Amino acid sequence: MLTGFYTMMVRIRKVEENLMEVFSRGEIPGFLHVSIGQEAAPAAVCAHLNANDCISTTHRGHGWAVAKGIEIRRAMAELFGKREGFCLGRSGSMHLADAGIGIMGANGIVGGGIPIAAGAAFAAQYKKTDHVAVATFGEGATGEGAFHEAMNFAAIRRLPMVFVCENNGWAEFSPKSVHMPVESVTSRALAYDIPAVSVSNKVVEIYEAAGEAVRRARKGKGPSLLEIRCDRWYGHYVGDAQKYRGKEKVEEAMAKDCIADFEAELIKGKVLRRKDLDRIRAEVSAEVEDAVNFARQCTYPDVSEMLEGLYV
Amino acid sequence: MLTGFYTMMVRIRKVEENLMEVFSRGEIPGFLHVSIGQEAAPAAVCAHLNANDCISTTHRGHGWAVAKGIEIRRAMAELFGKREGFCLGRSGSMHLADAGIGIMGANGIVGGGIPIAAGAAFAAQYKKTDHVAVATFGEGATGEGAFHEAMNFAAIRRLPMVFVCENNGWAEFSPKSVHMPVESVTSRALAYDIPAVSVSNKVVEIYEAAGEAVRRARKGKGPSLLEIRCDRWYGHYVGDAQKYRGKEKVEEAMAKDCIADFEAELIKGKVLRRKDLDRIRAEVSAEVEDAVNFARQCTYPDVSEMLEGLYV
Amino acid sequence: MKETRYIFAIKEAMEEEMDRDENVFLIGEDVGLAGGSFGASKGLYEKFGPERVVDTPISELGFTSLAAGAASCGLRPIVEIMFMDFVTCAMDSIVNQIAKMRYMFGNQYTVPVVVRMPEGGGLNAGPQHSQCLEAWFAHVPGLKVVMAATPHDVKGLLKASIRDDNPVIFIENKTLHAMKGMAAEADEDVVLPLGKADVKLQGSDVTIVTASRMVHESLKAARILEQEGISAEVVDLMTIQPWDRKTVFDSVAKTHRLVVAHEAVKQFGFGAEIAAAAAEEILDELDAPVMRVGAPFAPASYSLEKYYVPSADDVVSAVKSTLERTL
Amino acid sequence: MKETRYIFAIKEAMEEEMDRDENVFLIGEDVGLAGGSFGASKGLYEKFGPERVVDTPISELGFTSLAAGAASCGLRPIVEIMFMDFVTCAMDSIVNQIAKMRYMFGNQYTVPVVVRMPEGGGLNAGPQHSQCLEAWFAHVPGLKVVMAATPHDVKGLLKASIRDDNPVIFIENKTLHAMKGMAAEADEDVVLPLGKADVKLQGSDVTIVTASRMVHESLKAARILEQEGISAEVVDLMTIQPWDRKTVFDSVAKTHRLVVAHEAVKQFGFGAEIAAAAAEEILDELDAPVMRVGAPFAPASYSLEKYYVPSADDVVSAVKSTLERTL
Ligand SMILES: Cc1ncc(C[n+]2csc(CCOP(=O)(O)OP(=O)(O)O)c2C)c(N)n1
Ligand SMILES: Cc1ncc(C[n+]2csc(CCOP(=O)(O)OP(=O)(O)O)c2C)c(N)n1
Ligand SMILES: [Mg+2]
Ligand SMILES: [Mg+2]
């Protein structure tokens, strides 16, 4: 399991490092929001989920899609705007989705995906399955009415879901203090009597807290909120120089690395050796580079496909 | 002051009893939502406010407009749809407003007035006055995103305002349990670290709690939330037979009367004698009947006035 | 067929579809225990229970997006927005989520949500409770927009909308709720096609294109005009998006005159699109200016409502004006 | 006059008005410390402080309604909605509150709110970040709707909008932000009238009515058409609501042919209203079908964006088609 966590975190990191590179080279257009530094949460939470469980994600959602098991080749193709992509190249980074394994889609509207995940949880409850839904979002999103309305409804109907907030301290170019009058998003949950815990950016800690929340949801005991205190290494989007943040703060954030910390633990705990780590990283690199090459070779959609499937 | 409370509560009651009567006779059209049984809150809270302080109210807002000092004749004219009304007869019961004394308007959109009051508080802060703003709303309104977004902003900017929730246990035709996963609206305030108290429907108790909150706002110490636990005697609107609620529950609610209770206290405390109460009630009745007659004699707007003033 | 009322026909449509398909459910404010603010779901809670007739907190955005999520997981939600005016709170859900989920995610999802809402005046409910906003939704790719004028139509169109795999904005009219008329029985299972207009009255001098309550005002106008020897054809669009160009253009090819009548504010209403399409595609058929009937450019008025909402008289004037101005 | 960029001209307009009137303030997401997502308020926070350049939590509905309340207490808010797509979250505030507060409360209030937002494609930002929704607002009585095409215009129109006592929806265009051009200096204090169109190019064969980015595509089209001996007049509406009927109709009375071009989805866009008004009021002047140019009926596409957004070529085709189809 620990090896699985590590592999997944590295996979997410590699995907985004590659994305940054191809984006900087102008190979992919639009906006690119990477989650480097935040790999632990998706790796840990998704380890509790299966293909029937749904997640809704955000503009910063690559990590979640990867952890939920998206096929990296076709995800990459989508980011390249190619027709082989999951969204036929129509939507790119901000809308990665794979209906087949419950990735309900990244959302370009802050907070937009939260009540949608509640809808998936509602459907699970309606159909009397034991599926659960996970809404992922940032602390900035908790300012939106959509967050409030979804939390309220989920609590009242005891929906089988988990609200997962990655509190990275920034929403675009402004710090948490602009967005929240409370320190922790767990305070928000008090308004709905939803159990909430806040954990650090350690994958095992997150895994345990998420397990508790997912089990609770699966057993029909209702929703929980999980806050992960993490750091956003890079700017809001790739290309954002973070002048508003100050070099020191950025360096401070980058000094905290959930992957490096975990590596150290794995070695200390004799779970993996240095060369095991190297092998995993090499394998993942190859996998991701293969995906990038695949995406490069895919084809752009044709203008004649513009209206295809708009209506059933 | 106690006499003032009593007079105001009776005035609100009389206004609405008269409205129910003329409405039932078909003299006024549209929807009519009365607040009979809930007179204590506006009488108590508005006693702390002056003409520079703003309030935003709801579909069930007659009591607040009266307590804030609206001229009853012209308020009545508005409800009759006459051009002498505060809104030129355009808007009726759901939109009573008097800009001159800070009645920013009743709102037909549940939750709609809450961020508007925050705007008044923002203006007071901006202009460095000691004015305060009060948003009034029902417990049902706390389900709307507008409530959440206003609370969040008010807390962050320490706006000089008071959120006043009349928790009457019902939102239209459904009980509180459909709308809230928590017992008291004060729990909602925890999400914003806004101080909150819940009081019963006793005018003096409300007055004291409101005083605390208003003083806090005036001193620049930020917003508070005040919940008043009260009962809605009649249906959601006049004509609603309350079948969903059950006769017993209705009778139970009607057995609790903030005015009758206060009368008993006034007499017991020897503040007023039975005949003082009678005199006050008679005076107020005359005042309200005069207003009704005034409204009857006013004129309907002419169709030629339809577009008047839409743009400045 | 049997006589019923528009509001009962809505209930019957929902009930029959809920009987037919267990994935259909209803969600909204007071739709459950209370049977709906206008009574559209009376009895459904008792019959189907709180799982399928879902009372919500007051949170239009939240429960509409919730329906979107449920729909993409295989359910078929009917969302009730109590007054069309309140849909302003759910625009993000409808426009950025529901309308786009299928297309934006590369056709991976079908999102069969029906969002029902009553529009219009008639209750003296004032500026925030009387609006007609269908033109907004017709401008949004991914949505269908349906408006029903009679008990028969509302039943057949609502059943069609519930069965349609696309999101449908289903617009009722408050003044029509009490309207009596014939509608199909459950076993007849009448499902009207979306996107198909209905010629409610044949005529030869002018085509009146309309929908919802204004169908009745237009028919009334046609009767008045008949007295004066003017023969009007009344085309009920029934679906505003996509609208039935063929029926409209065929009618104009016959009458050579076009009036469009709706209750919404005239400017930038759906009449603009119909008139513009005529000026673009069948200008040569037009013998006279295209007149539009709609509410004046002001919020709905409480006490002047009867002058505010367009009536048969306005349709009569528009028809006369187009006839007088024949080129 | 001096050379500047569209985005700087926006900043200058706000800065000059904030200098002139201490009741003017700016509110929105990241408008303060960060200087705005597109940089429109760069430097204003440093100059005017956090009281007048107000960073908000992500809560479009909340801060737009807050602006409404502040405006009715005498302030003059400029609200920035980061992308026009996000205005879907604030529709209740704009439509049920801001647009109606004055009228609904019997003209007791003036509500001088300017809601700025950039629309359109150009950044490959996909379906939820590229919409053009001006037609919605033009359908709402109580609002004015302004669209600016050049640095000069955006400055003069924004200053006018801030000074206007009515609520104004002020629509920028993302592709224009970087555009260079001349604009007035602070001491010239150029304030352009709202409701007045600008003939950007004189011509005699066809009138192209347009706004915002499509003004430039239309001018480009006119240059192409000129090569073929076709003389196009380009009318920049600048204000969509109320729009300048006189300038448009005068132009059509001269050219007898009308094309309307906008970036929004063609169906039910503002072109429909212009075309319909022509069919209603000046049909006799029209020698040919009125053609409209707009985006196809689909959400904006990430990788097909350049085919999705209408271009000069589309305007050229529309003009040729109206000329070919002269009656
Ligand atoms: C409704 C809406 N408003 C604003 C934006 C612009 N926006 C995109 S991301 C973002 C900040 C989100 O912050 P947070 O939720 O903390 O997520 P993070 O970026 O930190 O992962 C904003 C304001 C948007 N996309 N949607
Ligand atoms: C946005 C919106 N949604 C729904 C309604 C319909 N509605 C009017 S009053 C009401 C219930 C309000 O309950 P509460 O806030 O508790 O106030 P009360 O009526 O008890 O005073 C509802 C749902 C509305 N007017 N606006
Ligand atoms: Mg964040
Ligand atoms: Mg209540």
Descriptive tags:
heterotetramer, A: 312 residues, alpha/beta, Rossmann fold, six-stranded parallel sheet, two-stranded antiparallel ribbon, C: 327 residues, 2 domains, seven-stranded mixed sheet, five-stranded mixed sheet, globular, binds thiamine diphosphate, binds magnesium ion
Can you offer a commentary on this structure?
The complex is a heterotetramer, with 2 copies of chain A (312 residues) and 2 copies of chain C (327 residues). With 312 residues, chain A is an alpha/beta fold. Chain A has one domain: Rossmann fold, CATH 3.40.50. Helices cover 45% and strands 12% of the residues of chain A. Chain A has helices at residues 2-24, 40-46, 62-67, 72-79, 113-126, 145-157, 176-179, 186-189, 203-218, 247-255, 258-268, 274-297; strands at 54-58, 103-107, 133-138, 161-167, 170-171, 174-175, 196-199, 224-229. In chain A, the strands form 2 sheets. Chain A has a 6-stranded parallel sheet, sandwiched between helices. In chain A, helix 1 crosses helix 2 (40-46). The longest helix of chain A is centred in the last third of the chain and has 24 residues, at 274-297. The model of chain A has no long low-confidence stretch (mean pLDDT 97). In chain C, helix 8 links the parallel strand 10 and strand 11 (232-236). With 327 residues, chain C is α/β, with parallel strands linked by helices. Chain C has helices at residues 6-20, 44-48, 60-72, 91-98, 101-104, 134-138, 151-163, 213-227, 245-255, 270-281, 305-308, 312-324, and strands spanning 2-5, 24-28, 53-55, 76-80, 114-119, 144-147, 168-173, 180-183, 198-201, 206-210, 232-236, 239-241, 258-265, 291-295. Helices cover 36% and strands 20% of the residues of chain C. Chain C folds into 2 domains: 2-188, Thiamin diphosphate (ThDP)-binding fold, Pyr/PP domains (Rossmann fold, 3-Layer(aba) Sandwich), CATH 3.40.50; 198-324, Rossmann fold. Chains in contact: A-B, A-C, A-D, B-C, B-D, C-D. At the C-D interface, helix 4, helix 6 and helix 10 of C face helix 4, helix 6 and helix 10 of D. The complex binds thiamine diphosphate (2 copies) and magnesium ion (MG) (2 copies). One magnesium ion binds at residues 138-140, 168, 170-171 of chain A. One thiamine diphosphate (TPP) sits between chains A (59-60, 108-110, 137-141, 168, 170-172, 232) and D (29, 58, 60, 82, 86, 89).
